[in-house]
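Shipment paperwork, digital attachment
Item: protein structure file
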Amino acid sequence: MKQPLMTQESQVYSHSRFSLDSKQLMSLIFQPTAELLYKSKYRIKVQDGPSVDFILRGTGKDLIKRKV
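Attachment content:
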């Protein structure tokens, strides 16, 4: 089964109120509209720090039926 790969780049600017050691909270919202297997690749770029690549995979709607 084909897995659509969606890549989106967003840029987040730092604010002077955050120190270099402070943690930043980030959330990703996945709202699929079709019963497919999805795969999304994300890259977090950190100015003067390490960058991180990660892949999230999931299914749309109720592709995998659950027993109740």
